[in-house]
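User: Before I run my own analysis I want an independent prediction to cross-check against. Here's the chain; please return only the structure tokens and, at the end, one sentence I can use as a sanity check.
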Amino acid sequence: MKEIRILLLIIPAILFFSSCYQTIILVDANKIEYLGEDQETDSVILFKSYYSDNAIEYLIFEMDLQNNSEKVIEFSYEDIELIFRSNKNDEVLIINPLSKEELINNLARDHKEAKKRKREGNILGVVFFGVGVFLAGTDIIEADAVSELISDIVYHNDNFKVLIGSIEDRKQYVNDWVIGNEKLNPGEQGSWDILFQRQSKEGDATFIFELEGQKYTQEYRLFFVSRKVPK
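Assistant: Structure tokens:
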């Protein structure tokens, strides 16, 4: 099931573990409801995109396509990019999606690190490995600082498996739902998840899908939202 992506999300699982919370800041997004300058309405290829989830380490978008043409269309994650423009300065970033191979390698890395950290008696390697999050009212706090907030709660509740999930289940999510090398036959439609490395900044972003020289775009506004984690 597509809902397996919840195994990639650490914060919802943590919320069950304690009544004492501390606020952290994550990234959310809203669509900007107008067509980009290079966008053209196209009844042959129907395109839609959505901001799906903030998975701490990744920003997850969804793309839906319907092929109303009379030919097979082929495309991949390499035909997609996210153009990010920071609110605070003139910085413009071109962010490429992560491939299935990169994501599976990351899962294997995190799973190995999580098992190692469990043996050592802490939670540093569990999804937070290598991930910085924002703590409200402070500078960036890295993974080890966040782990100190939750490690006692996690181990007292014996929920290590809830946090890391099954690596095979998470691989299955990547294989089933994350965009790779795809094709749609005439009349077919499909839906894929596209994962980008998380940007810990507010600003506007343009999701761009290019097919045979035609660009399909959707504008988003990325902003911070607060979430609660145990103290």
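Sanity check: The two ends are 32 Å apart (CA to CA).
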